[in-house]
## 1
Amino acid sequence: MHIPDGYLGPQTYAVLDAAIIPIWIVAGGRIKKALKTKQVPLLALGAAFSFVIMMFNVPVIGGSTGHAVGATLIAIILGPWAACIAVSISLVVQALVFGDGGITAIGANVINMAVVMPFVGFYLYRLIAGDDPSPARRVTAAGIGSYLGIVAAAVAAGIEFGIQPLIAHTASGQALYAPYPLNVAVPAMALEHMLFFGPLEAVVTMGIVVVLARQDSALLQMKPAAKPLRWLWAGFAGLLLLTPLGTLAPGTAWGEWSVSELKAAVGYVPAGLEKVGGLWTATIPDYAPSVIRDPLVGYFLAAVVGAALVVGVTWVIGKLLARRDGGSAHPTPPGGAA
Amino acid sequence: MIPVLAHISDTAPRKRGGVRSLARRTADTISGAVREVLENDDLASSPGLMQALDPRVKLVSIVLFAVTASFVHSLAVLVALVLATMVLAAASGVGIGSFARKVWSSAGLFGVLLSAPAATAWITPGAVLVPLGPLSITAPGLLIAARLITRVAAGAGFGLLVVWTTRWTDLLRALGALGVPDLVVATLAMTQKQIMSLLRTVENMHLARESRMLSGGTAKENRGWVVERMAFVARRSMKTADDVYDAMLSRGFAGEMPSLVDLRATARDRIWLAASAAACVLAIGLDRMVLPL
């Protein structure tokens, strides 16, 4: 996921490089308050661990191997702000010592792997685990958090790649940087991580959480999240407001054609597709409620309804898991590093 | 000089008719990374054009070149920038072959794989150069792919020039002099040191496992072992952070970081910076006003 120089145009990397500075300042302030003078060795070792965990070859299937990123795991151990700085430092060292990841693309790599991944992973972990989780619930939460954390980071990278043809092209429409549009770049990055790297990240994170819970459970003490969760909701609301940007992408996502679009493209409709294509009629087809005329408003409302459904289902699952755990949850000491 | 230990992994005998086990592969990868850092330090300490520059000036000029490569769209200018990285590498005592191989393996190969579909009619329609049905190579597609690959190669080449011709300590001094807070510089310095230490630990774990195993083990067994070792490294990292902090306190550390900055730019550095800026302006000027896309 390390983006080298050359794939992102100046309009993108300049914005992302500038965006990480306030994030680092806020993160630095938070961990300085929590860790005081201990921050230097703790962050250095956190960054070193982040680097080294990527060097482990993990067997996957068919004799192949992959490696985990570990950003969610580091966020679980150190807290999300400290993880943000630790993974950022690791990425800077990778770029400046090993030439892995571009110099101009440092902002993009930090946003994807040191901001999106640990924050999404950590807050999902907190949301599912709650304040006092049982071992099984903690491991499940770590798996889901790390899986969705890396998928979210991949989607962010896909968006960065996918907007390049929209914002930087020649007069004849040729892409000047990464050449694939959103409807190719985002599914390509997302699918690769949903099917391969996501499960790997989840298995590794869950395994390490199991071992740490057995050998050194103090490392897994729950980090405070009440206040930062408000920021999560604020960020979530911001993303919802930005959803009408999705209407900028023209055409239909690759592989998501309707029967009529497919017929127009290849000249016929496969029999099997024709047979099962009409089995289900969506409540809000094409993210455009039939009662709303303005497509931008319709798209936004579809996003609100979809997000509310996802949050609601997650909340219900969390409640059910909490009820099932009942009094079996083992005590964990309060507080944390960040 | 590179310690003898750094060479051990690659010379050790391989098991099972030459097929390397997972432990051996990981140990070799880590050994390669450690050796690369040590070789970089050797190269950065040897005489050469880039090594003689003030690290601040070198860092600023290389960032200027990397940014210029991102602004340029003409294939001819991009190729000239790639050639410039090779000329600078040669003038700094870096073997052109090893430089090109590293650029190719770190970014070029990935660039080719990523841009290959864009060269076809499937993604970029246009005049067909090589007819292969829906995967026919088109002229505009080939131009897009060539532009992306050369830009990536130029960016990776400039980045590699910094990595291979600057000692890590000098790079940290340059960052400090350029306004990066002392706390961040100190953390970066400690990070690199701890990375090397942890890498050695992880390499030894894998070599120990390799030496104790008669067969490669199943994927499930290996996965369990790897995860357990990762957890060990996590615990070791946090324990070391405590130990390092205690050592810092016992030496009188009270939160103040000593500044590493004692750099002085010479006339040569100023000439280099001016020449670099002029070259960048020239490249962008040629790209925008003279050469076609």
## 2
Amino acid sequence: MSNTAPLLEVQNLRVEFPTRRGTLVALDDVSFSISPGEVLGVVGESGAGKSMTGAAIIGLLEPPGRIAQGKILLNGKRIDNLRYEQMRRIRGREIGAIFQDPLTTLNPLYTVGKQLAETMTTHLPIGPGEAKKRAIEWLELVGIPAAAQRIDSYPHEFSGGMRQRVVIALALCAEPKLIVADEPTTALDVSIQAQVIALLKSLAREKGTAMMLVTHDMGVIAETADRVAVMYAGRIAEIGPVREVVKHANHPYSAGLMGSIPPLDRRVERLAQIDGAMPRLSAIPQGCAYNPRCPQVFAKCRELRPELIDAGTTRAACWLYDTEVARG
Amino acid sequence: MAASVRRFFDSDLWWSFTRSPVTVVSAIVAAVCILGAVFAPLIAPHNPFDLASLNLSDAFKPPAWDEEGAREYLLGTDDQGRDVFSAIMYGARVSLLVGLSATAFATLLGVTLGLLAGYVGGAVDSFLMRICDIQLTFPSILIALLVDGVVRAALPRIIVWLQERGVLSAEISAQLAHQHIALFVVIFAIGISEWPKFARTVRGSTLVERNKEYVQAARVIGVTRARIMVSHVLPNVLGPVLVVATLNLGLAILSEATLSFLGVGVPPTQPSLGTLIRIGNDFLFSGEWWITIFPGIALILMVLSVNLLGDWLRDALNPKLR
Amino acid sequence: MFAFIISRILQALPVLLAVALISFAMFAYVGDPVAIMLGQDYTQAQRDALVADLGLDQPFWVQFGRFIGNAVQGEFGLSYRLSRPVADLIAERAPATLELAFCAAGLALLIGVPMGVYTGLYRHAWLSRFFLTFSLIGVSLPTFLIGILLILVFAVWLGVLPSFGRGDTVRLGWWTTGFLTWSGVKALVLPAITLGLFQLTLIMRLVRAEMLEVLRTDYIKFARARGLPNRAVHFGHALKNTMVPVITIVGLQLGAIIAFAIVTEQVFQWPGMGLLFIQSVGAADIPVMSAYLLLIALVFVTINLIVDLLYYAVDPRLRIGRGKGGH
């Protein structure tokens, strides 16, 4: 990991949802950072809080959800407490976003060229003519053939994979330093997924853009990310370099997650699975959220919630790595 | 029984109901209107249709708070000495009766045909939906007017025709030719004008349900089509129907009022609020405004409260807004 | 595009035919033209002669064919009640109704659409709540009651606006207009408001509902995520997408104005086609009723067609086959 100042820092982020049955905590004390040009993968089951983290970062949490505590810093400056207009200027220009479903992400009534041009003219000091020229360049960059003609096409005239490429172009065209990509390939055909991920990866590398890649697909993470954070029940269970987390996960949950993926290099009789299910937000157990399902649980796990502890190769929120605790 | 009552009061539905003061108020107003209408013969201070009790010298009395008014005629009297307040209660009765019956009829017809169209599909579906399309091109009031006019004009000839063929006896024919038939004609007309909305909604839901596994399972077991439609699909498509019915109740009441105002609605022997407004309209210029305005306010209150309840119900049952 | 128009016209024909059939059935079977035309006493010979003359002894389809043939030429027979050609009656009354409808529609659109947009965008502003309450009451008020209330306030109590008739009108060829005289314009005010108010509230609620729906979509979220300013998000994206379904329904609603004119014309004794229709229903004047019906059907079908075309023009997704599909 480089020692340059982090691009994005999330500190003790807590996101709450007031409901009539009490307050639900969707994100609880989440902290991590992303360095410039780095790709951080965020994995976890549905409902673990991955998308919520992305939404909080770009300031588009759906009400009544709100950031109750914590800070989000971009280049050292707080962005979680900005007014709407200030945050708007950051969106697109400093932080770009890619959403899951390319069918619904693009406005069906506007041509692709128009949507690209308006994004660029909003953030960059260029005129409409220059914007159109650059729009064509972007389409070529993301691999759309005959870009000069397709610039005037409508979204429904593209296939799913092509549409997602357009979305990628839209996210990058204002030249942000960070992209939050929320399940960018989940809605695509498997054969297209690889292409789109490769495109994303190469563009990010080329432009030096950092990425927060949210997905539940470990394969994509293994291919693309530098580091990965495993989320569980609104908290980070483990965070570390991709190789380490995938091959030698320290947190029992991460280990279980990696172990449940069918391996290609050997035969297995049964897939390993984790008993039970992730707890609902209204019923998170006391102590470590994973304790009811953990094969290595002991007394402390049920009482105190662990913070991220240095476990050698990664950092894991697990009492197993607490040097003061007598294991046994 | 007690358990389901408790469950109801614990549900999201009740919670959202109690949370909205507007809805609670409108429910209360609606309840008052309904109770007043239903129990009119028992609680109305006068019976405005009992000719013997009318006193012509009491005609044109303004409301009680006016200096020329009388306390026994709370909202004044009309040209025949009839108490406006009592007339409103009886009128509301008729309005509500027609509105509810017409909506019930439209629901029954629409749900049946919609279920049929959605489940059986094919030519039946095309045909029924074509009819719906054609009918929906026109506003329902026009349809209601048309059906009302045509049936009214055709009915005597139809009755005569049936009597000649011995289907109806002379006494029944005489009964039918009586003015009361107008009431049923109005209910029929309004019901006919509203059924497509129900049919469309139910058909859509049925199409969705038809492809679900529980229906396919029932088919595999060998349950007859009719039974599948009624016992399995029907309960699942009734949710939106309730909302449409409530929203349509207000419309039905307004349609009846409009038809009666135009003179082609309920018979004059059973005046509804619309009829009262029409009668009172003649006296607007001579200054006796209360004869038409108070029935008007009653109508507005009734329809408004029903609409508000319908709005609340629609929002409460909409999964997207929860 | 051309094929689209043709296919839509072909779809409209069955509707017109169905209505024509109903019209004719009314004409032929419900009324008894012979009895009405000949009065109380007539001989059988006179009856036979008239029947042959009117072609009433011909088979159903022949009569229907003649009916259609006549209708297309604008020949609808004589009114039972007024003994004048129906076509003349309608032509006399049409301008009154059309002018009224035009004003009401204009009112409903010019006020309803902006109100709807406002309440959709700024849901929690007090003005929005006020508009919503107002619209709720508007939807619960029957047209005739609005008319009566307006008459009470402005004609009876304040005495500033007339409560019946069209005022003075000016004849321009076949058309009579009320726009060119002061009394004509004054006479238009109350009826236009009455007719337009219901439509206004409907349009406002529709636009609002669509707007709220659109603001929840992914592409609006993406537009915000790209940092587009509110002006572009609300008016560039949201509004444009809202208008597409709104156009269809608004078009159909405006057709409804012509139907609702019936009630308004009754309240204000406005000498239009609606009043004519009501008087015909009351007198079982079948020729007028069936002609009105056919005409209304034509109007509605035409409006539907125009709306479909507009939809086609506005929504690019309908223009499949522009030849640029690709992977």
